[in-house]
Amino acid sequence: MCELFGLSSNRPVALTISLQALARHGGLEGPHKDGWGVAYYERKDIRLIKDAGAASKSEWIRFLGDHRLRSTLILSHIRKATQGARTYSNTQPFIRELGGRMHVFAHNGNLKGFRDVAGLKLGRYLPLGDTDSEWAFCALLDRMADFWPGTAAEPDLNERLVRIARFAEALRPLGPANFLYGDGDALFVHGDRRTQANGEVAPPGLCVLCRRCAPEGDNIAMDGLALEAGEQEVALVASVPLTDEAWRPLAEGEVVALRNGRIVTTAKG
């Protein structure tokens, strides 16, 4: 399965990513060569870097290593293809505009028969590729489109969470549906099931860690990641725990909203 990573903080942080190490830590020692991508929020816009090839052969990995990009909201995806060819348009994360800002989405799982589900029909938003993940993103934005006023103000966070939780509920019968969804204000995380170390498909699909970093600069070192934090609050999301700390596994169907490095609210889809 694919690997997901997300970050929310109350101040911009510099994040250095080794996607090869991150994939190995998540159990994808070999089959993680079908593309990768990282999305950094820049206020309402997105700095998106992705490649349809293997991270081990990508020149963009060197770029990420040479440029300590900073953001308060970051999403990353490493692909093991289950649906759709290995092309740029099928590489995650996916981005679209809604309400005068960029929205970003990354999914881990395999949604079977998604085109035939009434609650996942498309409207204004159409996929560029042919993956179940991008189709799901477009269907989610169709559900959210009438909710965003197109002004500087965001819709109520709890109401957004309810809509996202209902959407996640429609996905789960189709297969594992872990996803990260950012709207520039918050990072929404849905935990479902994933292939565990014993080969069983079971929860947890994602884990969360919230940290308050020390004023003198309590940098965070993980397999695949180096985070230059300083004095601030940081929330991390990953397919599997990346450190020996007490990561909280999300229950099957749990949706949490992260903002400014904290879990703000949670719901059960």
Structure notes:
The chain is α+β, with helices and mostly antiparallel strands. The protein contains four helices and 17 strands. The strands form three sheets. Strands 1, 2, 3, 4, 11, 12, 13, 14 and 15 form a nine-stranded antiparallel beta sheet that branches. The longest helix is centred in the middle third of the chain and has 15 residues, at about 155-170. The chain is globular. The mean pLDDT is about 85.
Q: How many extended strands?
A: 17
Overall morphology: globular
Number of domains: 1
Main beta sheet, described? 9 strands, antiparallel
| Mean pLDDT level | 85
CATH topology: Glutamine Phosphoribosylpyrophosphate, subunit 1, domain 1
From the alpha carbons, calculate the radius of gyration and give it in angstroms: 17 Å
Brief description of this entry?
With 269 residues, the protein is an alpha+beta fold. Helix content is 16%, strand content 38%.
Write the topology of this structure.
Elements: E1 3-17, H1 19-25, E2 36-42, E3 45-51, H2 59-66, E4 70-78, E5 94-98, E6 101-109, H3 132-144, H4 157-171, E7 177-182, E8 187-191, E9 194-195, E10 201-202, E11 207-213, E12 220-222, E13 225-228, E14 232-238, E15 248-249, E16 254-259, E17 262-268
Helix pairs in contact: 3-4
